[in-house]
Amino acid sequence: MMLKINLLPYRPARRVAKVNQLFLMWGVVGLLGIVAAFLTHAAIEEHIAGLRSRQGNLETQLKKIDEELGEISRIREMKALIKQRLDLIAKLSGARDLSLRVLDALSLTLPEKAWLTKVTTKQDTLELTGKASSNALVADFMRALEASPHISKVDLTRVARPAKEELDVKEFTITAHIDPPEAKEPKAEEGKK
Question: Are residues 37 and 88 in the same domain?
Fold first, then answer.
């Protein structure tokens, strides 16, 4: 039997093969890393482009909503102005015949032996100056005025006997507050029409 000895340098060849294999493996890993980085970069860029597109759409919608809100606020302002005008019209409509009602109340409540010499109005205040045959008639007149739905806060400011008169009469001055009629609220059914 003969022994065969291999004297060829196999270790450096094996080392070179391992180094080549290592470089090949690192090259493949590096190449895969570059491909993965490229794909990740492409996916991120696509996601950013989608977000920018969505941002543009949202900004367009936001502009539309701002326009609608501006229109809604203008409509609310117009509604408030119309309501204010309607309230004024209702107030004026209710008060248009108030002076006639007050004069009617005065004529109905004035006692038979009393008469008015002067009637003055200043805003909501009514000042009555007149003459009566007795203090009791003045008191009856004041009670009757207080019972009127259009007159309140009746107050006697002066009662005196005139110096020039020979007859037994009393001069009086009465102040009162004029109450405008209440504005009637529209019914809920009318508001729906």
Answer: yes
